[in-house]
Design brief:
Elements (H helix, E strand, L loop, with lengths): L28 H6 L3 H10 L5 H12 L4 E5 L6 H7 L4 E5 L6 E7 L10 E15 L2 E12 L2 E10 L2 H16 L5 E5 L2 E5 H7 L11 H14 L3 H6 L5 E7 L6 H11 L4 E4 L8 H15 L2 E5 L2 H4 L5 H9 L7 E7 L7 H4 L7 E4 L5 H14 L11 H9 L5 H19 L9 H15 L24 H13 L18
Helix pairs in contact: 2-3, 10-12, 14-15, 16-17
Length: 500
């Protein structure tokens, strides 16, 4: 393998992130003559003028390895460390002793305080590695620098075989571009990978969904058969796409059913909270369907259709749904609490949304079944007495309650029981008395606090990057896509956003 000469750190790179206005100083032949390693190229460039950093680095590193092939990429999906850590491929990476690296220590706080103390890793500003990939060997030099709002990362893959270098870049970027164990959420104009939403979906189960059995079986059969029926759709020359609308008052199972579907289907789930984009709703809609087509087959969830569709964006949205471009493999599920607000062109045209599923307020039998569900959950808690007689009493007193309201009754009752158990309240009270009191309390709030009935797949607006302006937000997206969500899949290598 090729080896660098021994390199000595001759200057600190404090100007790397300073962004000072440089004077234009051209590179001379004498500069090239006296530089004999990639580190000096990087340090000298950032210690002086730096217009066209990407071009300077590429040409100067190429001059150092004139007898080798240099393949350069700035693709933010290319990350040799994440590829080595998670792909299972035969790849070995060794930091070169002969090249001096520039690194920044980065602390990554855990998503939750109880998950530990976080970790400290390295964000590499400049570095070089020897890479063995299968029977191929490369040298890889990487440099990262800011330009305006953007953070540029440029990789130089040095080898004797340009075709092998391209194959290595393709394999690495393909693996790194497919994030695992996340749900892609579109809001505020961009897609973000949501690990916590994926985590919450793993707890969903159709066993926990209390619906009319015929409705549940029909719904399950609908989406299950769709993803198995591509050949049948093609046989009859029908576009392989399906549109469903979940409608009904809030809090009656639409959200938990969506979670159960997203967990069960073995295709990417895409979740849309808003069409808003810094360039307008049309740009947002275009980005949403472009991503869905790229991920197909997939399930595309549009929350609160009646709020998403407006007079201004309706025509553009319908054109995308109708598939002026190929929509094969898209299962589109829209939800609404107000079907009467939907445009008839959306709700009454089968080629757009083929089937509507109504989630009404639960019947007496369903309310009793829901009480049975809680009776079974609480059976092992000896402090709680839940007699069968309470099942009918609960069902009678919760007329017009949604599932969300009924859940609130049980949860608030259990909180009172817990408070009494830890000694904050002296007066004893049996579970029946507490539960019925909470039902009465919720009945009184029925009209004044309707938000108790609402539910959403996500809460709190998610973890999108801050800032404003299209280019800044788009670049910050790279931070969220490539850091902090991989768990044990790989080490921290770089944050393509500014110093965080």
């Amino acid at each position: 393998m090729m080896w660098f000469g021994v390199i000595t750190l001759t200057a600190l790179c404090s100007a790397i992130l300073a962004g000072a206005s440089p004077q234009q100083v051209p590179w001379s032949d004498s500069d090239i003559k006296h530089r004999d390693n990639a580190f000096d190229v990087f340090v000298k460039h950032f210690s002086n003028s730096r217009a066209g950093t990407d071009t300077v680095l590429q040409t100067q590193i190429s001059s150092l390895y004139a007898n080798s092939s240099i393949v350069v990429t700035q693709d933010y999906n290319f990350d040799i460390f994440r590829y080595a850590a998670g792909s299972g491929e035969s790849i070995v990476i060794r930091e070169l002793d002969d090249i001096e690296s520039i690194k920044r220590a980065v602390f990554v706080k855990p998503l939750r305080r109880r998950n530990g103390d976080g970790i400290v890793g390295d964000r590499v500003v400049f570095g070089g590695w020897e890479v063995a990939w299968g029977d191929q060997e490369f040298k890889v030099i990487v440099a990262t620098w800011p330009e305006g709002y953007m953070q540029i990362t440029q990789w130089h893959v040095i080898s004797d075989n340009a075709q092998a270098a391209h194959q290595f870049i393709q394999a690495t970027a393909r693996f790194c571009s497919n994030l695992r164990n996340v749900v892609w959420v579109f809001e505020q104009g961009y897609w973000r990978a949501d690990r916590e939403l994926w985590q919450s979906i793993q707890d969903a189960s159709w066993d926990d969904v209390v619906l009319d059995e015929d409705l549940k079986k029909s719904l399950q059969g609908d989406y299950q058969s769709f993803f198995k029926s591509e050949a049948i759709y093609k046989k009859f020359s029908v576009p392989w796409k399906r549109g469903l609308i979940f409608l009904g008052p809030p809090g009656n199972g639409k959200t938990v059913s969506l979670k159960a579907i997203m967990k069960e289907v073995k295709v990417p789930p895409l979740y849309v909270k808003t069409f808003h984009n810094f360039a307008g709703d049309e740009a947002g809609i275009k980005a949403i369907f472009a991503r869905a087509r790229a991920e197909a087959p997939c399930v595309l969830i549009l929350e609160d259709l009646d709020s998403l569709i407006t007079d201004q964006n309706r025509s553009f949205f319908l054109n995308e749904v109708d598939g002026l471009e190929n929509n094969d493999g898209l299962l589109i599920i829209g939800t609404t609490n107000h079907v009467e607000r939907l445009d008839p062109a959306l709700s009454n045209r089968p080629s757009r949304f083929d089937r509507k599923y109504t989630f009404p307020d639960p019947s007496y039998a369903q309310r009793r079944d829901y009480a049975v569900y809680w009776q079974d959950k609480l059976r092992s808690i000896k402090e709680i007495k839940f007699p069968d007689a309470l099942l009918d009493e609960f069902a009678e007193k919760t007329d017009k309650f949604s599932f969300a309201y009924m859940k609130e009754a049980f949860v608030s009752s259990l909180l009172i029981v817990v408070t009494r158990e830890v000694g904050h309240v002296d007066e004893p009270a049996d579970f029946r008395t507490i539960l019925l009191a909470q039902i009465k309390h919720l009945r009184d709030e029925f009209k004044t606090k309707p938000e108790l009935a609402g539910a959403s797949l996500t809460s709190g607006g998610g973890g999108g990057a801050g800032g404003s302006g299209g280019f800044h937000r788009a670049e910050m997206m790279r931070f969220w896509e490539t850091s902090g969500i991989y768990g044990d899949e790989g080490m921290i290598f770089r944050y393509p956003g500014m110093d965080m």
